[in-house]
Amino acid sequence: MSAPVSDPFIEIRQLTFRRGDRVIFDGIDMDIPRGCITAIMGPSGTGKTTLLRIIGGQLKPDAGSVCVDGKDICRMDRAELFGFRRNLGMMFQSSALFTDLSVFENVAFPIRVHTDLSEELIRDLVLMKLNAVGLRGARDLRPSELSGGMARRVALARAIALDPDLIMYDEPFTGQDPIAMGVLVGLIKALNGALGTTSLLVSHDIHETVSIADQIVIIADGKVIGEGTPEQLRAVPSARVRQFMHGEADGPVPFHYPADDFAYDVLGELT
Amino acid sequence: MLGLLRALGVRFLDWLGALGRATLLWASAMLGLPRWQDVRLVVTQIYYVGVLSVVIIALSAFSIGAVLALQFYTQLARFGAEDAVGIGLALVLLRELGPVVTGLLFAGRAGSALTAEIGLMKTTEQLSSMEMMGVDPLKRIIAPRIWAGLISVPILTAVFNTVAIWGGFVVGVNWLGADPGGFWSGMQEGVEIYQDLVKGMIKSCVFALLVTWVAVFQGYDAPPTAEGMSLATTRTVVISSVLILATDFILTLVFYGDF
Fold first, then answer.
1. 10 Å Cβ neighbour count for B259?
2. Which site among A165, A212, B9, B143 is 20 to 30 Å from A253 CA-CA?
3. How far is CA A271 from CA A256, A257, A259, A261, A263, in A?
């Protein structure tokens, strides 16, 4: 396990979250260091996206606290939450671009809503953000005219439109071709360095994530089972962490969903 | 028997929960509105839900006016009272058919579109992303659509009434040969501003509130699946239609009932 983070941007303490009878998080503690890229990893269905939504204040935990830059978002009312989110960028798995707006207007949206900048300044800012993701020339396209990779890059430009202190990426590499994936990896790393933001990345793609993450947190069964730099985690003796870090199909995290004996299922009472 | 009671209880609690969520949604969206910066959004929505509904409203109105005139004329001609076509047409349209049919058509055309649009925005995480940007989707998406409906439906009702009376005039006077002077003067004498026109408009405002409320709630509350979307749009039309017809009966009873 890694040493405690000296200046955490996000402090999660005793976080418990349930969906019905199912416990998603069972009193987890986590520190996300300021100005670094932290990757949240774990098997499907462990609540990685749920964690991002809790940090963004879209879901309320059943117990525990989530402090972002010293403020407990669990105690904020609706107006305070909307104020807090102005300093937050999130790139959704589905890109979540506004389908009735052009690429330019999608990126301009948060700037228009939250600032009183002149139209000229908004234009310059949007073109700068689009240029950073290589899509300045696509400003007039509609979201339906974009490929999946391009849509993610527009979503990234929109997430950084107001230069937020915290950017959250939900599965940014899923379904991307190798070129788009490489571009996104490079962009996330470059933007984090250039803007000095804290980045929180949820991903399954071990190789890409390890190549840019400063810290990785692995969650399984509602607990944090591993935490540290990629090098530290590779050296962890835990079989569960090793299985995940090396992408092994079977191990402590079973490949098969719980079921009856296969032979019995197929042959019935003949067995 | 116990199972049936339990199932009924569960359905009732589900319904009560949905009613509570719908009320909260409406109250949260409309609290403190309208804001000046939302005027443009409201105008845009008036175009989508109101202006784009004009053609179907006008076509239906003309047909209904024409059919009513035909029926009225045929029956009234037996008693030599063809001139009463105008007043009969006006009272039926202003008091009942105008607001009710406009409400039903609005639910079918604009209500279902509102539900599908909001449901798809939810399914594709557009509402979530808006929230994460610090923009309240209730104020930005829901409220302008409710306001647009509240403004559009009474205007559409006025359009419906006007076109339907014109349709009645074309059939009753131009085609069947009723006296135009009798047609208009009967209407002028028989129609009262408050009793007929204002009460009809109050009905249309109530129907506007019901349809937009049901439509935005069904879209916002729809499960983010294809089946959920399909059910939500169907529910919007069905629930809105039933509510319009039931509320119309109650309002007619209150406005015109002789207790």
1. 4
2. A212
3. 21, 22, 16, 11, 7
What is the Cα–Cα distance from B127 to B125, expressed in whole angstroms?
Answer: 5
What six digits make up the tokens of B177? 């040969």
Question: What H or E segment, with its residue span, contains residue A210?
Answer: helix A206-212
Residue segments in chain A with a per-residue pLDDT below the cut of 70: 1-6, 247-251, 253-255, 269-271
DSSP secondary-structure letter at A135?
Answer: -
CB contact under 8 A, B135 and A99: no
Q: What is the mean pLDDT of residues B22-31?
A: 84
pLDDT at res. A1 = 46
Six token digits for residue B36: 């000046």
Contacts of B2 (CB under 8 A, 6+ apart): none
Q: Which token pair is B92?
A: 């039926």
Phi and psi, residue B229, nearest 5°: -65, -45
Residue B33 has pLDDT above 90, yes or no: no
Interchain contact B128–A (C-beta under 8 A): yes
DSSP3 helix / strand / coil % (chain A, rounded to 5): 40, 25, 35
Please state, in angstroms and rounded to a whole number, the distance separating the CA atoms of residues B36 and B32.
11
Q: What is the predicted ipTM?
A: 0.81
CA dihedral angle for residue B228, residue B229, residue B235, residue B236, rounded to 10 degrees: 150
Query: Looking at the predicted structure, is the pLDDT value of residue B145 above 90?
Result: yes
Distance from the B237 Cα atom to the nearest Cα atom in chain A, whole angstroms: 24
Are residues A113 and B133, on separate chains, in Cβ contact within 8 Å?
A: yes
Letter string b/e over residues A110-148, b meaning 16 or more CB atoms within 10 A of that residue's CB? bbeebeeeeeeebeebbeebbebbebbebbeeebeebee
Residues of A in contact with B129 (CB under 8 A): 90, 92, 96
Q: Does B180 sit behind a cis peptide bond, omega within 30 degrees of 0 on the bond before it?
A: no
Cα–chain center distance at A136: 25
Q: Whole-prediction pTM value?
A: 0.83
Going from the C-alpha of B75 to that of each of B67, B85, B88, B165, the distances in angstroms are 12, 10, 12, 18
Identify the DSSP state of A4.
P
Q: How far apart, in whole angstroms, are the C-alpha atoms of residue B25 and residue B216?
A: 9
| Structure token pair of residue A99 | 């389908």
- Hey, which residues does A219 pair with through a beta bridge? A224
Q: What angle do CA B157, B95, B211 make, to 5 degrees?
A: 45
- Structure tokens given for A168: 């959250």
